[in-house]
Inverse folding.
């Protein structure tokens, strides 16, 4: 029987009232990363961003889109990963090819790939609501460390994170991308009644146990999420809640592209033409939308 995959598994560690999410991504992350011909270090970094976005979004109560975005002066100029309330995930990276070519060795370290810049976490619940955004400098050797810095600086919430991304052989022998992320958070003291010393000990123990998990365990397609949680935290009593499913799904459409083109002046559209066509490529899924002169005339007439 196939092991459930592409999900966020919420859980709670009792009696310390520590809550967490375990993200397991198989087909979804492989679909997203193979839509682009990224060099391996870039694909790994984007995979980490998508897995972390899934873990972070699972901690929030919202209706809309949660986005993790980085912008820096390194080979990866910008990186975006987002997830909707319904579980649709997507992501892309903008690359400075010259800087990437000048980078020696394969490294997924933040200072080398992202450089100096910022990390932004955004919750957008639609045009009639106020958008929430938190921004911090990129600080840390890994993307997980940068997110941890965000929590420390912006949310004053104690959180621990671990993430893994790698290619693994599938049942057919083909190498495919997989990703996993594990996150635990410490709830405010007033939500439960333990003594402070017990709270501290429970938190330290949970972070040590989380750190003991291996990258191979986080992405193991044969290890169910609930079994991994039990393996790590069973001595303290871990309770898994119903999982939320994730799927690679872009929100681009021909109608959205038409709306953008309709707003552009005719001169701009003329400059965009190549071989008589205006073509627009979605940065997230690489789908190409082509518009002939007749298509553009119909747009303007409409």
């Amino acid at each position: 029987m196939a092991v459930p995959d592409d999900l966020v598994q919420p859980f709670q560690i009792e009696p310390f009232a520590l809550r967490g999410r375990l993200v397991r991504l198989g087909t979804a992350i492989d679909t997203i990363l193979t839509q682009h011909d990224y060099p391996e270090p870039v694909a790994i970094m984007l995979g980490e961003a998508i897995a972390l976005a899934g873990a972070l979004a699972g901690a929030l109560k919202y209706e809309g889109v949660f986005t993790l975005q980085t912008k820096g002066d390194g080979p990866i100029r910008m990186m975006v990963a987002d997830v909707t309330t319904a579980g649709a995930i997507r992501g892309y990276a903008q690359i400075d090819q010259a800087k990437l070519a000048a980078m020696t060795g394969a490294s997924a370290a933040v200072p080398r790939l992202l450089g100096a810049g910022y990390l932004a976490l955004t919750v957008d619940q639609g045009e009639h609501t106020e958008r929430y955004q938190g921004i911090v400098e990129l600080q840390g050797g890994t993307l997980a460390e940068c997110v941890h810095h965000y929590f420390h600086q912006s949310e004053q919430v104690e959180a621990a994170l671990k993430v893994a991304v790698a290619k693994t052989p599938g049942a057919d022998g083909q190498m495919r991308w997989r990703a996993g992320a594990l996150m635990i958070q410490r709830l405010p003291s007033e939500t439960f009644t333990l003594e402070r010393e017990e709270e501290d000990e429970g938190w330290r123990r949970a972070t040590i146990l989380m750190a003991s998990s291996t990258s191979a365990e986080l992405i193991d397609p044969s290890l169910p999420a609930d079994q991994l949680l039990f393996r790590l935290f069973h001595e303290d009593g871990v309770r898994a809640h119903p999982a939320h499913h994730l799927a690679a799904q872009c929100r681009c459409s021909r109608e959205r592209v038409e709306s953008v083109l309709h707003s552009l002046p005719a001169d701009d559209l003329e400059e965009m033409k190549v071989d008589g066509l205006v073509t627009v490529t979605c940065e997230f899924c690489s789908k190409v939308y082509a518009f002939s002169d007749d298509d553009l005339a119909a747009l303007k007439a409409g």
User: Anything to note?
Assistant: The radius of gyration is 21 Å. The chain has a mean pLDDT of 89.
